Amino acid sequence: MADDTSIFIGASRKPDDSYQRAEELLLRYGNRHGLITGATGTGKTVSLQVLAEGFSNAGVPVFCADIKGDLSGIALMGEAKDFLVKRAEQVKLDPYQFQEFPVIFWDLFGEQGHPIRATISEMGPLLMSRLMNLSEAQEGVMNIAFRIADEEGLLLLDLKDLQALLANIADRADQLSARYGNVTKPSVGAIQRTLLVLEQQGAANFFGEPALRIADLIRTTRDGRGAVSVLAADKLMMNPRLYATFLLWLMSELFEELPEVGDLDQPKLVFFFDEAHLLFEDAPKVLVDRVEQVVRLIRSKGVGVYFVTQNPLDIPEKVLAQLGNRVQHALRAYTPREQQAVRTAAETFRPNPDFDCATAITQLATGEALVSMLEDKGVPAMVQRTLIRPPSSRLGPITPDERRKIISESPVAGQYDQAVDRESAFEILQKKTKEAQDAEAQAQQAGSGGSRWTIPGFDDVLGTSGRRSSNRQTVAEAAIKSVVRSVGSSVGRAIVRGILGSLARGR
Ligand SMILES: Nc1ncnc2c1ncn2[C@@H]1O[C@H](COP(=O)(O)OP(=O)(O)OP(=O)(O)O)[C@@H](O)[C@H]1O
Ligand SMILES: [Mg+2]
């Protein structure tokens, strides 16, 4: 049914509910983004699973978050359950074949998948501030902290690096204020306390090395199928801000690392963003604007972004306007507010004279949806009432044993499992403090007078010990390594740092 230019997603129905035609997503418009919406239990996850299967079979790697664990079944072969076989008949999916998919499990906490890590330096001040929900003044201090780290060659890898840097900044707040603007001890202290909370929430696992290599997300198998990266997000969802910030970071990393390719026959990667409302919930306008920009620009890198959420109104209009391939499952319409949401959702479709969109949205069965995919010239097709095909892989979660087996056989097994803690800001600042103390002790012993001042841990004017210069070298080396690692050679990255970096400054 589906050839290699499209993904079969289901069958649309005539007004008398008989079979009408196959509905397909055209792979060449797979990078024009998409949207899957609907109330709880209406079939969003299964629709996501069906799309992910289709992309993988076409050789397109997929990244998706698994909020409830029920997407993990995509790693294993489906079974011929009655209701699935019946659905396959209804949509004329013949033969209905079962299949398992090449899944790589990931987990920010390293429990249900390979650990995913990023460094603080990579995350940048904007996303860190968002993650920590900082006030504007605190965000200003965070920007200064990153600037100081850049200028002084301090690598920020993990949370303790940032803690050490902040402590150091607090110590010399007056001096720094003169140079960079307002850096007050209370605002630094407030950030330090927020960092502690973040640590208690388990975020410490996430920050550090080895950091995720984007290349590991765009793998294909020897038989030409795209890897399906499944992020275990059940625990992560308890910290929605970390979840949203992480996915935002991932999206910007993809944008930075992948070259400009224009429109291809099929995407290079497809990214599913479940619970997408979290990305925009009480996000400052600047951030929403930048997300809009990244979504718009990432298309020409061959990346398709598919938002999954309950209601299309959860997504800001400017972002919504860019989501070309739409699957709208049922919505409830009991309260006036719900009714309004249904009307608005209906208005986003190109109408079909055969039925009233708003009425249909409230009547859709489970696993049925209003579907409008982009067709020729990238124009949205007239909306159709569509029964979604059943998945080929397992419906529902896999067992912990099955998961363990898949993790141990994964192509990245052993590459991320062990955290590495190389010399970075924390260690360097510790050394410097010690050196400054030693030097002071020496000076006091020598009893020499003169103007001598130390700034604990920083640019001290004391001593001419060779130790310090060797320390400098280490810092410089580390800085170079950091730049090479995080900047790479792509021009795209510079643009992206611009997009996200310019946020706070624009305020
Ligand atoms: N295309 C389909 N074919 C067969 N059964 C389906 C299909 N879509 C959904 N179902 C049935 O409906 C159930 C609920 O679907 P699903 O888990 O996708 O809902 P959901 O919208 O993701 O819900 P939630 O918001 O709670 O996560 C599935 O477990 C399955 O039994
Ligand atoms: Mg679901």
Task: Give the topology, please.
Blueprint: E1 6-13, E2 19-26, E3 34-37, H1 44-57, E4 62-66, H2 82-90, E5 103-107, E6 114-115, H3 120-131, H4 136-151, H5 159-171, H6 173-180, H7 185-200, E7 228-232, H8 240-257, E8 269-273, H9 277-280, H10 285-298, E9 303-309, H11 317-320, E10 325-328, H12 336-347, H13 357-363, E11 368-372, E12 374-375, E13 379-380, E14 384-388, H14 400-408, H15 425-446, H16 466-487, H17 491-505
Helix pairs in contact: 3-4, 3-8, 3-17, 4-7, 5-7, 5-15, 8-10, 8-17, 10-17, 12-13
Magnesium ion is lined by residues 44-45, 68.
How large is the radius of gyration? 26 Å
Q: Runs with pLDDT <50, length 5+?
A: 448-498, 501-507
Question: Approximately what portion of the residues adopt beta-strand conformation?
Answer: 5-15%
Sheet with the most strands?
12 strands, mixed
The strands making up the biggest β-sheet line up spatially as: 2-1-14-11-10-3-9-8-4-7-5-6
The N- to C-terminal Cα distance equals: 52 Å
The small molecules bound here are: adenosine-5'-triphosphate, magnesium ion
Estimated helix fraction? 40-55%
Q: Residue-averaged pLDDT, rounded?
A: 85
Count of individual domains: 2
Task: Supply the CATH superfamily name of the largest domain.
Answer: P-loop containing nucleotide triphosphate hydrolases
